[in-house]
Amino acid sequence: MTGLTTVLPFLRGAVLGLKQGVLQRHILPDSLHVVQASFACSRVQSLSLRACSSSNSSGACTLYTEASPRVDWLASRTQIRSYASSADAMSATISSSKVQVLKELEQALGSPLDTQPQTPQPKPLVIVISGPSGVGKDAVIKRLQEIRSEIHFVVTATTRPKRPGEEEGVDYYFVSKPEFLDLIARNELIEHALVYGDYKGVPKKQVREFMSAGHDVLLRVDIQGAATIKKLLGQDAVFIFLVAESERALVERLVERKTESIDKLVIRVATAREEVKHITDFDYVVVNADGQLERTVSHLCSIIDAEKARVQQRYAQL
């Protein structure tokens, strides 16, 4: 039977709930018993205490009290503090008990409990997104930037003419062919390729600066560019391939652009057919269905979050 001297300290504050008809529960110091006090009447009439050893696997022990004039005597013997409510008393009791248990654990272990995160600090990622022309890479990346502003989009340098609505330094860095060839000569591009008669390349400087500041970097490249980066970084970068829901859906988007002649469309479709064959060179494939932009971006966010949770994280060094 649990001694009265063991139970009494846990009645602190509980006595104040005698007139409120509340059910209170307190944890004993040995954490093996639970003292339960049930008060059902609003006036103090009599007092009786009964404690028992636990007789079941839960280790529960019930303390029954009946309100009585002896409450004042009990309060004086146990030096009950005045709490604003019985809930405060219960919370303080549990908190005090927890602190004591933690101190005893640290003493037994011989060292303080570590409060540092147990997961490694996530490393900045190099995220490479590619896919056939017309699949919607630009729209997907723009929306991803709005949701994940901490990701830096590496702006590609290109020699092609600026399209309506495109901004310098936002969509591309538009440079002349002599300027682009100078970047190649100075080895200032991660990768570059000649696509449909125009040069495109990824400047190294941006990637280094933002990764050193702890930012993930996002690269939008064509299939040739992705293959080049794959050779350079291998498994240290995340490669994601965007596709339309079908070939016909992709062609319809190209036609809706109204920026290509029939001859150029034939070339683009033929090129797209070859590009899709390289899906197996990527880590992930995401379908960007028409009218499902939010779903597409949600999938990309899930991929990034999963990569951040890897035990062996990727880390690209340039």
UniProtKB/TrEMBL annotation:
Single GO molecular function: ATP binding
The keyword Cell cycle appears for this protein: no
Database matches in PROSITE patterns: GUANYLATE_KINASE_1, GUANYLATE_KINASE_2
UniProt-listed InterPro entries: GK/Ca_channel_bsu (IPR008145), Guanylate_kin-like_dom (IPR008144), Guanylate_kinase (IPR017665), Guanylate_kinase_CS (IPR020590), P-loop_NTPase (IPR027417)
Domain of life: Eukaryota
GO cellular component, one term: cytosol
Annotated keywords: ATP-binding, Kinase, Nucleotide-binding, Transferase
Class of this enzyme: transferase
PANTHER family the UniProt entry points to: GUANYLATE KINASE, GUANYLATE KINASE-RELATED
Family: Belongs to the guanylate kinase family.
Protein name per the record: guanylate kinase
Source species of the chain: Ceratodon purpureus (Fire moss)
